Amino acid sequence: MTNMLKIKEKQEPKRRRKMAELLQYFMLFLIVLMLALALFAVKTKDLLSAVIASGFISLVASIVYLYLQAPDVAMTEAAIGAGITTLIFVITVRKTKGKEK
Amino acid sequence: MVFFAASLLLIFIGLYAALVKRNLVKIIIGLSIMDTGVNMLIISLGFVKGRTAPIISLKELFKKGTLLVDVSKVVDPLPQALVLTAIVIGVAVTAMALSVVIRMYSVKKSIEIDDFKELKW
Amino acid sequence: MRKIIAIIFLSIVGLYILSLFAQIPFGKPYKGVSEHYVEKGIEENRGSNLVTSIVVNYRGFDTLGEVTVLFLAATGLSFLLFSCKCVREFKRIKSSLVLRTATDTLFPLILVFGTYIFIHGHLTPGGGFQGGSVIASGVMLLFLAYRRFHVSHKVLSTLESLAGITFAAIGLLGLIYAKSFLANSVLPLGQWNKLLSAGVIPLIYIAVGFKVGAELSGLIADMISTTKED
């Protein structure tokens, strides 16, 4: 019984290192997603899609802020960037018949 | 290092949209993407590997017996305070710019900047 | 042609700036002012959230400036859209039953959540700006769900002005009693990790939470408004 507990204790640091590595790969994936969304927002001709892409960039940035150990900033960016900014952009697009020539 | 490169790339993509595009709402989307990039750059400058967030609610983060915090366990809190202000001001400026766009549309019924050339010779 | 010139120019400048940033080591320990803020933060302020004690106490004057900038932006926006005929041509459509039911359930919870965030600003992550934006997004939900919803601008501007006056008055109290503007020793500091502690920091953040919430709600109401009397 005590042998099994000792083996589990030895495997703990290895598991923690694997988790840290997985977390780094996940951050890399999120950063690539953010850049792809930025290119899409610049290139598309439909203004509503560009606005939703810019709101999505704010949401992904909020998750990256949490990895960089900044919970206050993550909360602010999620509430303001993905909520208020997207709404006022959508109101403007609706009022100006949004299509790019 | 990856974070610096990604933030700079976001800033330059936003700057490209603000320089080259002709539609007014696209230009302001570019400015908003630039705001997000700059804030991410500032926060990634304050990150230290292996330390935790600057919210002190456990007794292990103090030095023994006193109320002084152990500096080697906490991430830099000053860039986070600056970015908090910057995000709110970013949304205020974006709202103001969009109200100018709505006004310009109601005058000429178009949001391409090629149609607003009265000040040119 | 314009695109190619822009891409070349931006890539030259971008590579140069990237080479500068590559010399900064990522994730190395910090020195300077932040050391003092982290080490003596709890002893001088007794509030668990170090970012709050920097934003409200050590750099409190910058927060006053930011609240002023937000006020100016909201005023400028409502001034520009005041006599515009464009706001009257905007028709709202009837929303579905799902949205109305969800709004009826969620709006009180969002309001309570936002108030909780800015009251406990010195203990947990959060504070005035975060709580104010959550309240404004609750009001935004009401605008999306109900066609004839309108806010009275008199109530919003009175609330906002009272909150701003409270912030400036607390600063002046510090000037009278403790010889420096926005001093923290006007109220007793109390014990770490309790609700009634950290001097004037909770009061200032409650005022800022009300102000930001009222301001962002007024901003959204100005942009959505459909009739002339709104």
Describe the structure.
- Chain A is mostly helical and 101 residues long.
- Chain A has helices at 2-43, 47-67, 71-95.
- Chain A has one domain.
- Chain B has 121 residues and is an all-alpha fold.
- The termini of chain B are far apart.
- The termini of chain C are far apart.
- Chain C contains 8 helices and no strands.
- Chain C has one domain (48-224).
- The mean pLDDT of chain C is 86.
- In chain C, helix 4 (60-80) packs parallel to helix 8, helix 6 runs parallel beside helix 8 and helix 7 (153-178) runs antiparallel to helix 8.
- Classes of the chains: A mainly alpha (101), B mainly alpha (121), C mainly alpha (230).
- Chains in contact: A-B, A-C, B-C.
- Chains B and C meet through helix 1 and helix 3 of B and helix 1, helix 2, helix 3, helix 4 and helix 8 of C.
Greatest interface by residues involved? B-C, 50 and 58 residues
Q: Mind telling me the C-alpha Rg of chain A?
A: 21 Å
What shape does the CA trace of chain C take? globular
C-alpha termini separation of chain A: 74 Å
Task: Note poorly predicted spans of chain C.
Answer: none
**What fraction strand of chain C?**
under 5%
**Fraction of residues in β-strands of chain A:** under 5%
The coarse silhouette of chain A is elongated
Q: Number of domains in the coordinates of chain C?
A: 1
What distance lies between the first and last C-alpha atoms of chain C, to the nearest angstrom? 48 Å
